[in-house]
Amino acid sequence: MNVIVYLGAGLMLLFGVYAVMEHSILRAAIGLALSSASLSVLLYVLGAHLAALFELSVCSGLVTVIFIAGISLSHSPKMEIQKEYRDKERNRLLPLVLIGVGLLLVILALTLNLQTPELAQLTQDDDVRDVLWGNRQADIWGQIALILCGGVAVAVLFREERREKK
Amino acid sequence: MNLVIVLLIIGLLMIVAGCWCLMRTFHLLKMTIGIEVAMKAVTLFLVLAGRISGKIALSETFVITVMVAEVIVAVVGTGTAVGLFRKYGSMDVRNLKQLKG
Amino acid sequence: MTILSICAHGFIYGPILVVLIYNLFNHEFARKHFFWFAGTGAVWQILAAIGGFTALNQNGQTSYAFGAFWDIRLAGAAFFELNATRFLLLLIVGLVALISVLVAHQTVDFNRSSYTNLLMILVLGMNGMLLVTDLFSLYVFLEVTGLCCFIMIAMFRSRADLEGSFKYLILSELSGIFILTAIAFLMMKTGSLRYADLAGLGQRISAGSGQLEDLLVYAALILLISGFAIKTGVVPFHSWLPDAYQSADTAVSILLSGAVNKVAGVYGLMIVMQLFGDVAPVGPSLAAVGIISIIIGALLAVRQPQYKRVVAYSSVSQMGYILLALSTGTTLGLVAALAHILSHTAFKSTLFTNAAALQEQTGTLELKDLGGLENQMPVTAFTSIIAFLSTAGIPPTAGFWSKILIILALWQAGSPVLAGVALVAGILSSAYLIRLQRTVFFGQTRPELAKVREVRGSVLTAEVLLTVITLGLGLLYPYILLLLHAGGIL
What we know:
The complex is a heterotrimer. By secondary structure, chain A is an all-alpha fold. Chain A has one domain: NADH-ubiquinone/plastoquinone oxidoreductase chain 6, subunit NuoJ (Four Helix Bundle (Hemerythrin (Met), subunit A)). Chain A has helices at 2-21, 25-46, 49-73, 77-81, 87-90, 94-112, 128-135, 137-157. Chain B has a single domain, classed as Helix Hairpins. The longest helix of chain B is centred in the C-terminal third of the chain and has 33 residues, at 56-88. Chain C is an all-alpha fold. Chain C has a domain at 288-490. Helix content of chain C is 76%, strand content 2%. Chain C is built from 19 helices and 2 strands. Chain C has helices at residues 3-22, 27-32, 34-59, 84-107, 112-131, 135-154, 159-190, 195-198, 201-204, 212-232, 240-247, 250-276, 282-302, 307-327, 331-362, 378-392, 398-412, 416-440, 458-486, and strands at 63-66, 80-83.
């Protein structure tokens, strides 16, 4: 199991960095989706089965669709080249920074030698659905508000302009 | 160096990558992607917290709610970026110079 | 069903009902009569806050817990709770929403139905933030509040609107990431995020215990404070605030400065202080942020070229006072912070309403194009003077008493130096206020502004209403001080 966890986490980081560094925005969105897919494998192995499903369908699927919609709405001949953003050159240092920060954190963890918690055993006592609908109903009200918000956002922000302020 | 520390370090690196993206990129949609990259790490942290404290079901409900928020953020960010594109014909952050004091 | 439970449930159901009913009507009708729907929502909020507080007092309870349609006695359930502090903030939300609707009646001409929907969802989000008893639910409603604001700023779709909204979105989401990371770190230690389970965490952790979780709790506190400080817009996290306030339509600016940055930012810090105030670095770091933003905010306000930008930087400075009061961690400090929140709502909303009046009548807010409007717009000039007096803390206005309370709280908590700095910084705020009043209202009338008339209708009503509140509170405060004295707080 541990091998899959390390592999999933590593792939997630790798695809995340690719999404940041890639200068084609479409490939960056796909990198984000792959990062999300790796995370969902990771979540499944860690025992969050329902969350893994949601991660795969919502974050990896729906968010990518939204970004691609955004890309196609902002399509212009100039965008084909993408040279003006120079993301590859500007983010060239990112891997070095990440390796540096990572080494620093590893050294910190080794020198402090902290007492780290282990993962607790998975219990089958409480079901996600019971917790969500039984205990976390304040969050459900929040979700309702968020979805209303998203509806208005789509209606307002993506609309073609007819009248505008000055 | 056990599993928890490794996952924590990878998550923190992911957040660094996301924040780096916010600081360095010139592309508006790319900034929204940077936020999403950092959010991935946060999702991992939440599930890890659930596993450590033995309340995995609780943290799963958190993750599901966070995902809904994440999608709406992506919608609003993309919508604003597209609106700016329609005004300027480009997704360049360097165009945003209207507000100065 | 008692009055208290009707009022309590109304905070959640009211806004959603208004949204649902409003969207049943056809577009033209809804556009024409948006004022009545949004106004009903706001007035309902004010009535529910006053009625609920009275009922709570009559029952002799200090708090009232309820679930919106579920049983709150389930183990580990996240429920809603009302107490005196929250009633006051809910009242402020209702008041600011009402003022915003009054101003929007004249300034918003298209996007009216979206404005109404978003206003109601925003009110729901802020009510949720104030009512929950769980850190994660707080985050969810914080996100609702933030998203509504981004859309409200961006929906007018000029270049400046979209730019302000995008900057706000990026920084705000950064703060969301901070807060969520902090939540995850806290959960590693406690396994629960209810306020009841988090309280007293300071005693259970120690920096030298060699445990990873304890270290992470300290990291979480830093992240929580910076996250909410970004939302409050205090120095050094203030860069989004003037841009967002300047670009938004004035009806939206009123919401942002009057309610959103108090509920989303200051209330969050209030919760952090209440839960973790006993952990050593929390209070002093709030005080440091507060004192820096008082001074830097005032200095930056002096040299801004636009009316709303000056007022926005003044907001940064005033938020510093509120954080300073909170940092003491005493009851008097909390009372002083709440008093200053109330008076800040009144005078800052007045200034933004005046901005709406100037924008409507003259068509510009650039300071170099304004001048000598005293005779043309006497009511606006008068309300603006009262608001300035209140901002600078000069009697007999509400701002004077709340600043006195803050200084007393600092003195009582044993930091006379901070009290002295707060007192002296008041002079700095007079500097930018005098400049603003002199350029806009006093002096020679510019020839191109000779035909300007006083604003009429709902904006004028809002100006007068807010000025009455500022002066009324100023006259009422001695009585409140006596109450505090009787209660042994002062």
